[in-house]
Amino acid sequence: MKVLFVYPNDYLSNGIPPGISILSSVLKQNDHIVDLFDFTFIKTEELKSKTDKEPTNYLPTEYTLEDLVTADSIISLEKAFKQKIELFRPDLIAVSVMTGYFEKVIDLFRKVRPKCITIFGGVHPTISPYETLKNDLVDFIGIGEGEGLLIDLLDALEKGDDYSHIKNLGYKKNGVIKINELRPFVNMDELPPPDWSLFDERHLFRPFMGKIYKGSFYVMSRGCPGTCTYCVNYALRQKLKICGRYFRYQSPETTINQLKEMKEKFGATWFKFADDSLMLFKVDYLKELAKGLIPLNINFGCSIRPETVTEQKLKLLKEMGMVAASLGIESGNARLRRDVLRRNMTDNQIIKAIESLKNYNIRTSTFNMIGLPGETRENVFETIKLNKMLGITATNVYIIYPYPNTQINKEYNVNIYDKYGHIIPVSHASSFALSKMNPSEVEGLLKTFELYVKLPKKMWSIIEIAEKSDKTGKELRNVLYLYANDY
């Protein structure tokens, strides 16, 4: 059968998603025909100059991703989707969707009205199955892992067989929502390498420290043992607990063989391990991984939990090619980290982890959240000051979003739907007003967080003016970001 995957994504937010690329490989192994509708490089009138004034943490390179799309035609998302459907004529459209993109996909489907069967899978349908299936544009949903589910469903549809027994499947029958039982988790060593050939080659553009490499995301584990209140992993673990051990991983041999294939087929030499924390793996596992990766001579970045950093593991990762790491500080206030976010790490663990990474010349960035329940402006500046004290020059900051069935969502009884029944966009996260600040103040701090970290404290009174959403604030922010990048 012919399957069209839909990848909802932000314009020019490049990187190949592991989920769809592995599903594509599995379907092709089973003689199905696969194509992709990818939002990433669709240049609409509204998005054509999206990145013109955004600050960047990258050093200048010979050319940029923006340079690679200058010749792209301007087209509406709706028209591009129609053209893809008319050309490919799929039997099934499969959408992998997170909560933040669900409404955008539904709006697109409502305009185009594909005349074929649809299935929505991924994080949002898994943690909100009934809400997803209530939509008349959704025929099926996949809960949890989709490899076995998609093969079984396509086989049933092709033969005209009953699908009420297919595990991990949700559907509607006579207006009633049905959710089938779940299947055990797959053996990750039995999965094929990701199918990067399905994606636009520009997804492989990887700038790093002034040079340009080829590569993308790769995962060797699924799940996370953490209990963070803001993370969907909590909701997923509760939903899928009968499927087996939630945090699981493939053998080092599988990872080595697949990365070797990615390098040979696509010229990939820079990977971003999208696992939740690379230092969750035991030392013996990392030693085996190192034996195969060191000869490959690749570079990689990864995410690391500060409390898992050890000298022995860091030395192994550096030897096998780690050049960049992102750490979740989340908040500079220990009480908020511990009691609100359930991130049980001390300031000392964070400081020690980042100092260790710097000693190994690892480019270090941080993840930070603001707008936390009960958070004050002073608490936000504790986070800013911690980053500043650590000498962090690359900060990622987000306003906390209470995703469905996360502990934050449940503890604070948050309704993520507006009065029309639509999911409130992630970009409007401040509207939930969970902190002790008003939404406009949270938005202002989001826009200037990096300026406060990068620029000297004597300039903070000027930066405060740049928090404002008016014309003066915007113009001042642009000037300050130009200055900060030079500074």
Name the CATH homologous superfamily of the largest domain: Aldolase class I
Helix tally equals 17
Rg is 23 Å
CATH topology of the largest domain: TIM Barrel
- Counted up, domains total 2
Subunit organisation of the chains: single chain
Give the strand order of the largest sheet, numbering strands 1, 2, ... along the chain.
2-1-3-4-5-6-7
List low-pLDDT spans. none
Query: What's the architecture of the largest domain, going by CATH?
Result: Alpha-Beta Barrel
Main sheet overview: 7 strands, mixed
Summing up helix and strand content along with how strands pair, one would put the structural category as alpha/beta
Question: Main traits of this protein?
Answer:
Rossmann fold; 37% helix; TIM Barrel; 487 residues; 7-stranded mixed beta sheet; 17 strands; 6-stranded parallel beta sheet; 2 domains; alpha/beta
Topology:
Elements: E1 2-7, H1 18-29, E2 33-38, H2 77-88, E3 92-96, H3 99-112, E4 117-121, H4 123-127, H5 129-133, E5 140-142, H6 147-159, E6 169-173, E7 176-179, E8 205-208, E9 211-214, E10 217-218, E11 221-222, H7 232-239, E12 248-249, H8 252-266, E13 270-273, H9 283-293, E14 299-304, H10 311-320, E15 322-330, H11 334-340, H12 347-359, E16 363-370, H13 377-389, E17 394-399, H14 407-411, H15 439-454, H16 460-466, H17 471-486
Parallel strand pairs: 1-2, 1-3, 3-4, 4-5, 10-13, 13-14, 14-15, 15-16, 16-17
Antiparallel strand pairs: 5-6, 6-7, 8-9, 11-12
Helix pairs in contact: 8-9, 9-10, 13-15, 15-16, 15-17
